[in-house]
Design a protein that fits this description.
This protein is of the alpha+beta class. It is built from 4 helices and 9 strands; from the N terminus they run H-H-E-H-E-E-E-E-E-E-E-H-E. About 5% of the residues have low confidence. Pfam families: Lipocalin.
């Protein structure tokens, strides 16, 4: 039984992947999506991520929008001995909830599903020539992700062709929570 599962799952996944256009939350409302999110889980087929995923901790994301409607993402990652900060800007597209990277790095970001007040599932595509990959993130407003949201996340994960082996459920830590951008929480 256990031996059969992977091949069945793989066959199913390759079917699902054919022509799979990644959906975006209908009627996406950027104003409601803004604010602080915790990254509760990530699934990706990026080789670098797969190597380090077991040591990863929950990071904190602050989303805001420019007057033009572009998405500004401020990230704080708890590392070994410090809180690493990044800022990424994504340009809006003609579709609400769909953004593209601004630099030479080709990146595509879609908010697949969100209820704004408790969870969101965000899909990212990196079309780099060296190693194209995709990633799915489960964002939650609370530091604890309920099993219900994790289940939604895993369903979407399978629907975009990512597998359980590529998933990291990020352990809750108290690290870096005080160290927010601008101190607005
Ligand atoms: C895209 O992937 C490439 C190769 O793995 C990496 O060098 C680059 O930093 C990635 N870009 C982004 C925006 O993550
Ligand atoms: C990751 O998945 C994407 C989309 O399915 C695929 O194009 C890419 O080649 C995969 N990358 C790796 C490193 O497996």
């Amino acid at each position: 039984m256990m031996m059969m599962l992977p091949s069945v799952a793989l066959a199913l996944l390759s079917l699902l992947q054919v022509g799979a256009e990644v959906p975006v939350q209908q009627g996406f409302d950027s104003e409601k999506f803004a604010g602080i999110w915790y990254v509760a889980a990530i699934a990706s087929n990026c080789s670098v991520f797969l190597k380090m995923k077991d040591g990863m901790k929950a990071s904190i994301i602050t989303i805001s929008f420019t007057p033009e409607g572009d998405l500004d993402m401020k990230l704080i990652l708890p590392m070994e001995d410090k809180c690493q900060k990044y800022e990424l800007l994504f340009q809006r597209t003609g579709h609400a909830g769909h953004y593209v990277g601004t630099s030479e790095e080709v990146r595509d970001l879609r908010v697949m599903e969100t209820d704004y007040s408790s969870y969101a599932v965000v899909h990212e595509l990196n079309h780099s020539k060296e190693e194209p990959h995709r990633a799915l993130q489960l964002l939650t407003r609370e530091q604890d992700a309920s099993p219900q949201f994790l289940q939604k996340f895993e369903e979407l994960m399978l629907s975009v062709g990512l597998t359980k082996e590529m998933e990291a459920i990020l352990p809750k830590t108290g690290e870096c929570w005080e160290d927010t951008w601008g101190g607005t929480r």
